[in-house]
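can u do me a favor
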């Protein structure tokens, strides 16, 4: 038995039903910077994204790149239930990723891509699952 990992760096915008994701071989500041760059590119011109993050070291590091159209909003420690993105991770586990055996790393990558694409393929799913009335900034 062996263990290999791939990490889905994913973000969703419930308001616009948008998403951005990267599947990477490792977690850390470099991976987070790549993810923030990906998010920055899909934000519509004239808009600003506030990204809810937990207190993982790669979410709060001073080494993260700054983007003019992104602000990070760290949650209080030990409060993952406040992050709407946790609903996405649960959906992915429940529907596509948990309790599976994979033939190797390529199979893991393919399964992660398929899972993310399955999740984001239904119009309105992001909005329905991840919208929070308290998260609206007017």
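np, heres the sequence
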């Amino acid at each position: 038995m062996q263990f290999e990992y791939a990490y889905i760096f994913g973000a969703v915008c419930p308001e616009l039903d948008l998403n951005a994701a990267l599947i990477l071989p490792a977690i850390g500041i470099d991976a987070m910077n790549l993810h923030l760059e990906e998010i920055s590119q899909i934000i519509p011109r004239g808009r600003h994204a506030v990204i809810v993050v937990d207190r993982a070291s790669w979410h709060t590091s001073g080494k993260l790149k700054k983007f003019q159209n992104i602000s990070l909003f760290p949650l209080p420690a030990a409060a993952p239930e406040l992050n709407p993105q946790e609903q996405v991770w649960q959906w992915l586990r429940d529907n596509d990723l948990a309790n599976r055996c994979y033939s190797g790393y390529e199979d893991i990558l393919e399964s992660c891509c398929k899972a993310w694409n399955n999740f984001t393929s239904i119009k309105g799913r992001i909005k329905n699952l991840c919208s929070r009335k308290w998260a609206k900034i007017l």
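The two ends are 52 Å apart (CA to CA). hope that helps!!
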